[in-house]
Each structure stands twice: as structure tokens, then as C-alpha cells.
Design goal:
A hairpin with a 6-residue loop joins β1 and β2. By secondary structure, this protein is mainly alpha-helical. 38% of the residues are buried.
């Protein structure tokens, strides 16, 4: 599998750089310079496992995603992913770094999972995949891994600005029975311990990620929901407007940080 070999080389190269690397060529937000990825707080053993494409558990989903991308459509399907996107190692590189983005036709904010499902519905005559299913996680992991080493480049201009502002608002609002805001942990308490783990700046470049507490791969939206569970807040739906706005906000403030998915997390 030539594509998988390319991914393995990319993982080795990106993990050989300084942990929490940002792209050298600016401009990028000032906060990107001081944000601390969860990679910094991994144990040496987990850091070594993440850097090794043979041992990285998330690569199981990447391999599955590569197969799903290339396989012929099932009965009733119109075409495969590869029918439209030949040579995905080049044609799809950088796509994950630009999403979420506002869809010109619908005016809605769409992330990578949403793009995959849009293609299934509009191009492949197939039903959408639910969040956290192995199939959607695998396709998302594969397409994100194709952008390993690419800096996040989401846009918050034009129609995206309203979604960004909403995400920023959600980030700063206290919520749940514990009355805690995201910013209190991931801006004001970075490096401190919480329930045995070290608080990071919520740099989202490693998602979808394999979390030891889940014993499986999970999306960024699942991670956001876990935080809401932790503060006993009302949960948003996976793929909701709220989580999409938070995803845009997080990826915007981490612009120029390099994609390194699938990451390993505790």
C-alpha cells in the first residue's frame, strides 16, 4: 500500500520534530506561540508509541480508512471516494487543515466529518455515517493523516466570523453544575494536574485521537463532550452547531500548529 507507506514516513518525520511544533512561516496568532499541546505532557513511552506508525494504535483506523476510500461502492452506491479523488496522497493533502469551513450553498459550518457525509449523500447515493462509528472515524483518520505536517489554516473571515464568535463565546461561558468555563482550565490552568492528567491548551491537531480512557479512537467532538460530562453540563449533540463552532475556534487559535493525528492521549 503505497499510500500507507507515505503516511508512515510522514508520522516519523512530524514526530521527529519538537513536540508542539508550529510552522516556521507566519503569520499566525500570538497565542499559537504559547499554546502547549498535550503531546508535551505524554509519558516517554506514550510519546514513543505515538511516533511509531507500527505501534500507534490509531493507525488501525487509518488503514481501515484507506481501504474504505478505495473500495468499490456497495450495491446502490454511485461511486467510490477514489473515483472522484484520485491520488489522495496529493489531491486530499491539506483538506483537513482547512476545515471546518462555511459551505457556500448552505451557509452552514461543515467539518471533515460533515464533508464526508455530504459526499456520501450527494455523490455516492449512500446514507450518512453516524459520529463515532468505526467507518466515519476511519475515513476521518485517514484523510486527516494525509495532512500530517500541514499547519492548521482555517479561515474566520466573512461568513465564518459569526461561527468563530459563537465558539469563542461558548469557550468563555461557565457551564454545568461545577460552573466552570473551558478557558479556566485550558488557558488559565495549563500545566496543572486534574484527575491525574496534565491540563493542556486544547490544541486539536491530534484528533481523531486514541484515548486510553476510551480504549478506542474518538473524534474531537467526543472529547468536547467528555469535558462537558466532567463539569456536569447539558450535553450538545455530536456534530451540533455548538461543537462545530468550538471546533472552528480551537483550530483558529491553534493556526500554524501542525497536524499530527492520530495522536495518543491518556
Amino acid at each position: 500500500m503505497g499510500g500507507l507507506k507515505v503516511l508512515c514516513i510522514a508520522i516519523v518525520l512530524i514526530n521527529g520534530q519538537t513536540i508542539g511544533t508550529v510552522a516556521a512561516d507566519g503569520p499566525f496568532p500570538d497565542e499559537a506561540r504559547r499554546m502547549r499541546s498535550a503531546n508535551e505532557f505524554l509519558s516517554p513511552a506514550l510519546r514513543a508509541e505515538q511516533a511509531d506508525p507500527i505501534r500507534n494504535r490509531g493507525m488501525l483506523w487509518v488503514e481501515q480508512g484507506e481501504r474504505l476510500f478505495a473500495q468499490p461502492p456497495p450495491p446502490g452506491g454511485a461511486q467510490s471516494c477514489a473515483s472522484c479523488h484520485a491520488s489522495p496522497e496529493t489531491s486530499m493533502r491539506g483538506v483537513a487543515a482547512r476545515l471546518p469551513a462555511v459551505d457556500a450553498e448552505s451557509g452552514q459550518l461543515v467539518n471533515l466529518e460533515g464533508r464526508i457525509n455530504d459526499c456520501r449523500i450527494l455523490r455516492q447515493s449512500l446514507p450518512p455515517l453516524d459520529y463515532e462509528t468505526d467507518e466515519l472515524l476511519a475515513l476521518t483518520a485517514y484523510l486527516t493523516a494525509l495532512s500530517i505536517g500541514e499547519p492548521l489554516t482555517v479561515s474566520i473571515d466573512g461568513p465564518a466570523s459569526a461561527f468563530y464568535a459563537y465558539g469563542q463565546q461558548l469557550w468563555s461561558e461557565r457551564q454545568g453544575q461545577l460552573n466552570v468555563a473551558c478557558t479556566q482550565c485550558h488557558d488559565q490552568s495549563v500545566g496543572r494536574k486534574l484527575r491525574g492528567d496534565t491540563i493542556s491548551s486544547a490544541v486539536p491537531t491530534g484528533y481523531p485521537a486514541y484515548r486510553l480512557e476510551w480504549q478506542t479512537l474518538g473524534s474531537l467532538h467526543r472529547r468536547l463532550r467528555s469535558c462537558q460530562l466532567g463539569v456536569r453540563a447539558q450535553l450538545f449533540e455530536l456534530g451540533s452547531r455548538e461543537y462545530l463552532a468550538l471546533e472552528l475556534y480551537l483550530k483558529s487559535r491553534a493556526r500554524r500548529h501542525l497536524i499530527d493525528a492520530p495522536a495518543l492521549r491518556r
